[in-house]
Amino acid sequence: MAVLPIVLAADEDPILVTRANRVPRVDDAIRKLMDDMVETMIEAHGAGLAAPQVGVPLRVIVLKVDNQLYQVANPEMVRCEGEQTGVEGCLSVPGLIGDVTRCQRVVAKGLNRHGKEIRVKGDGLLARAIQHEVDHLDGILFTTKVIEGTLRSWDAADVDAEQLEGELVG
């Protein structure tokens, strides 16, 4: 496994604003990508990471919420219920956080690391992380969804940075 460089929005790389390609099949190369993404996400203290954030234009996400690891290829949202508003940040947009309204509960389907179809059900932070990472696959950065007037620098935020660390997504 390897820690991969994270693509930053400040670099204006078009990969962050371009829809990612479907994974044709989950093979050893995709499993290695997933493993490297997990290591990168953990090293960066994120709750999630999408393949475009490491320069790979494929529909692959990894998440780690409440010590549960998820690795999903070709994720698709199949259910979205309720509403929650919370603080988000992004590994590709370091130093900025903002309030984003998202679905409270979601169900996503996709393929696991063995190519088998799975469904991931989540609420709260897991639901937020799934939506944030799927947005990355569609070329959408969280900054485009931030409630007006709430985007702020990490240092200027009226929140304890250590408390936020486990709540910010990738």
Automatic annotation (TrEMBL):
Q: Which Pfam families match?
A: Pep_deformylase
Q: What class of enzyme is it?
A: hydrolase
Lineage in the entry? Answer: Bacteria, Bacillati, Candidatus Dormiibacterota, Candidatus Dormibacteria, Candidatus Aeolococcales
Q: Which family does it belong to?
A: Belongs to the polypeptide deformylase family.
Task: Give the annotated active site.
Answer: E133
Q: Which SUPFAM superfamilies match?
A: Peptide deformylase
Superkingdom of this protein's organism: Bacteria
Function, as annotated, reads: Removes the formyl group from the N-terminal Met of newly synthesized proteins. Requires at least a dipeptide for an efficient rate of reaction. N-terminal L-methionine is a prerequisite for activity but the enzyme has broad specificity at other positions.
Task: Name the PANTHER family on file.
Answer: PEPTIDE DEFORMYLASE
EC?
3.5.1.88
- Keywords from the named record: Hydrolase, Iron, Metal-binding, Protein biosynthesis
The catalytic activity, as recorded, is: N-terminal N-formyl-L-methionyl-[peptide] + H2O = N-terminal L-methionyl-[peptide] + formate
Tell me which Gene Ontology terms the entry assigns under biological process: translation
Encoding gene (name): def
- The yes or no answer to whether the keyword Zinc is present is no
Positions contributing to Fe cation binding: C90, H132, H136
In alphabetical order, the GO MF annotations are:
metal ion binding; peptide deformylase activity
**Named cofactor requirement(s):** Fe(2+)
Q: Output this protein's name.
A: Peptide deformylase
Q: How is the cofactor bound?
A: Binds 1 Fe(2+) ion.
